[in-house]
Design brief:
183 residues; 52% helix; 8 helices
Length: 183
């Protein structure tokens, strides 16, 4: 498997992981039959599929799971926002939270516990942190053709310029793809 972790990326560009590496970590959590395996699988899945911040996932409540989205209350800068949610993931969340009260926190974890969860399932040789999932989400969205304004809204960035930094990373991939073309 090609290692697509850009260690030589300048500090202004966020580090991210290829979706295959992220999926391997999620699969590791899914295969964990321990006490918190299902919870940890959901946490990693949400980080990957939504790009939410560590602080946001630790504050999610059952009533934040809506029909086709997650409601992020009081995110960075005290702003609320809506993040699309795959139906399959929504259903897993609803089953997981079935016995919870509406205003109960979904995962009952703090940031340091989130970091430890990620460490537990990380893939050897790859650096993984909560924000790595966010960066990987953003890059994957752009590589898949998502409109940058939509990505800006999902990530909760005030400025489009903050989101545009991911275009520089995707630009590297475009250059590599261009070099494959024979003339």
């Amino acid at each position: 498997m090609e290692k697509r972790y850009y260690e030589n990326t300048p500090k202004t560009l966020p580090k991210y992981l290829a979706k295959e590496v992220i999926q391997m970590a999620i699969d590791n959590a899914n295969n964990d039959k321990g006490k918190h395996g299902r919870r940890n699988h959901l946490i990693l899945t949400l980080l990957w599929q939504t790009g939410i911040r560590a602080s946001e996932i630790t504050h999610l409540r059952k009533n934040d799971i809506q029909n086709d989205h997650l409601l992020i209350r009081q995110g960075k800068g005290g702003k609320d926002r809506v993040i699309p949610l795959k139906q399959e993931t929504r259903n897993l969340l609803l089953v997981y939270s079935d016995q919870m009260k509406a205003d109960q926190k979904l995962f009952q974890i703090e940031r340091r516990q989130l970091v430890n969860i990620i460490k537990k399932y990380r893939i050897e040789g790859y650096e993984m942190h909560p924000h790595t999932f966010r960066h990987s989400f953003a890059v994957n969205c752009l590589q898949s053709g998502m409109n940058i304004r939509s990505l800006q809204k999902i990530l909760g960035h005030n400025s489009l310029g903050t989101t545009q930094v991911y275009l520089d990373i995707v630009g590297e991939d475009i250059k590599k793809d261009y070099e494959k073309v024979t003339w």
